[in-house]
């Protein structure tokens, strides 16, 4: 039988002997370290994590600070974006109606002013505002021969042209560009795509003039003038339709007067009154003031339009028997060299001599060519 290991001796029992328990030196001399103190459990009724923070407490505090900072940054960014969006909306709400009012003048100064006003807005809104600016530039190119305006208009039309729904003014701008190139079919196509917009009717009537089909321009011109009475272009085109068909000179005069009331420097309306006067359908005096205004507007009216106004004014003065006033009008015309002055004197004589109807004189020199005088 194997020997068993000896039984362990019983644990010593405490006794009064001082050697039985020797306290650490730190207790004897009252020294406590933070490490030894923190190792002693505390039970004072508090959450242990709050009462005795562990080693990850600093990390949690730092993470909380970072989170709060990120949240504050997000709130600030949202506020900035909201403010910018509000400012953008306000700028467009104020600028777009002002630009459309300038377009309604149907003058070079109006189109140029609208294009300048819309320049920063087109960057904020590359659809509606950019389309509106493209239209202003397209009309400058088509009616006033601004060669730089055409490529700028085309550049603005790239993004609107790719949209699922093309803005009306993008189609109108394209129609105006084709009108300036005398591309009747393309101009009619894009004007039709603009729907029942007042400017669509105005352009459709002018396209009909270009195609030699006056009858086709009656309804669009009437619709445009009725839809927006403050649009000088529509009123002036309606006056041309009524005058050239020789059916309603009274209506033509009223339409021209409405156009000039909305836009005192509108070239088409001023020339239209002159043609009614030279056709003996209204008094000669009624046409003089609008032509004089146009001739004297050097800051805003292009030289070719002012020269054209001088031609009409000279014809009216010749009809009234005042040759000196006729010569003075042609002298005030800008850009007329020797051959141009000779052509203008002969043309004014022909226009003044025909009393049964207005007689347009063709092959005008470049200094007197005008898209607004398109008989």
Query: How many individual β-strands?
Result: 0
Q: How would you classify the helix and strand content by structural class? A: mainly alpha
Q: Which segments are poorly predicted (pLDDT under 50) over 5 or more consecutive residues?
A: 1-5, 7-24, 26-41, 48-52
Elements, N to C (H/E): HHHHHHHHHHHHHHHHHHH
Principal-axes geometry comes out as elongated
Describe the 3D structure.
The protein is mainly alpha-helical and 375 residues long. It has 19 helices and no strands. The chain has helices at residues 25-28, 34-38, 48-51, 57-104, 108-124, 128-144, 149-156, 158-162, 168-180, 184-193, 198-211, 215-227, 232-244, 249-262, 267-278, 285-296, 303-319, 323-332, 338-353. Helix 4 (57-104) packs parallel to helix 6, helix 11 (198-211) runs parallel beside helix 13 and helix 14 (249-262) runs antiparallel to helix 15. The longest helix is centred in the N-terminal third of the chain and has 48 residues, at 57-104. The radius of gyration is 43 Å and the shape is elongated. The protein starts with 24 loop residues before the first helix and ends in a 22-residue tail after the last helix.
Task: List the keywords.
disordered N terminus, 375 residues, 19 helices, single chain
